[in-house]
Amino acid sequence: MKLNLTLYFLLLFIMILSSCVQHNAETGMPIQDRADRAFQSAKIHTELAAEYFYRGQLDVAIEEVNEALKAQSNYAPAYSVLGLINMSLNENGKALENFERAIRMAPKNPEINNNYGWFLCQRFTNRMDDAINHFMVAARDPLHATPEMSYTNAGICETKRQKYTEAQLFFQNALSIQPNYSPAVIGLIGIDFERGNLTEAKSKLSQFLQNYAPTAEGLLLAIKIERALDNPLAVDSYIFQLQKHFPESKEAMTIRGGKIR
User: Fold this and answer.
1) What residues contact 188, with CB distance under 8 A and at least 6 apart?
2) CA-CA distance, 112 to 98, in Å (whole number)?
3) CA distance 245 to 202
4) pLDDT at 51
5) DSSP string for the chain
């Protein structure tokens, strides 16, 4: 007996659909639904972990990362956040392992590339070229929400190894995306300072601080400039502002520790 052609294709479609959306024998929940829920749970816990990390609540951040990885053991952004946490704890070996695992899972993810690049820049100066490459993967991704950050990070790292011309280009790229982006502006002024153009650096920074909200990075640079110009009253004024507005920042801790050069 011949089967009606329309009915045949309808039955075939149902068979394909049933094979794609399997059900768990115990819960009765479609496997695809379970996977979606696991992904969403991992995503939410990772976002919470990142928020707690930036607040300095590292213990809670670690708990949230663990919950994310319980939900989905191969969720790459969770390993990236765990890398940042371990970096903050000076567990560089663990952090490197976390970032490498994340990048293997999601080699084009802009946030992961940005975080990994920052880690390499700060902790492995012999891998600075790798850091810049990761920043560029992030910055050139059309879906990256903050490419100006990745360009700025690249500029900071090039400044660190005294490649000022390259750094300047990266900061300018950042500002072409977001004019007056504070870290990039501070980065450019920092190049003037490093090159010994103290009067110009002071003028630019004073103007910037008058027009925009101060940042810890900007105030620390102001302290360095005024110290180089031997203006102790100005130095004290900027130290006061830094300790008042950003007491928990690494810049304030640098001042309190007497580690400023």
Assistant:
1) 168, 171, 172, 175, 204
2) 11
3) 21
4) 94
5) -PPPHHHHHHHHHHHHHHHHS-B-TTT--BHHHHHHHHHHHHHHHHHHHHHHHHTT-HHHHHHHHHHHHHH-TT-HHHHHHHHHHHHHTT-HHHHHHHHHHHHHH-TT-HHHHHHHHHHHHHH-GGGHHHHHHHHHHHHT-TT-S-HHHHHHHHHHHHHHTT-HHHHHHHHHHHHHHSTT-HHHHHHHHHHHHHTT-HHHHHHHHHHHHHHS---HHHHHHHHHHHHHTT-HHHHHHHHHHHHHH-TTSHHHHHHHTT---
Residue 94 backbone zone (phi > 0: left; psi -120 to 50: alpha; other: beta): alpha
Residues in the chain: 261
Tell me the mean pLDDT in the region 155-168. Answer: 97
pLDDT of residue 7: 44
Task: Give whole-number Cα distances, 7 to 4, 12, 16, 20, 21, in Å.
Answer: 5, 9, 14, 20, 21
Residue 55 has pLDDT above 60, yes or no: yes
Q: Which of 84, 77, 85, 89 is nearest to 47 (CA)?
A: 77
Pair of tokens at residue 215 = 């940042």
The pLDDT value given to residue 258? 77
Dist CA 198 CA 115 (whole Å) = 32
- Which residue do the tokens 């946030």 mark? 111
Total Cβ atoms within 10 A of residue 114: 24
More confident residue, 173 or 1: 173
What pLDDT score does 8 carry?
41
Which candidate, 124, 139, 142, places its Cα nearest to that of 181?
Answer: 139
Confidence of residue 256 (pLDDT cuts 50, 70, 90): confident
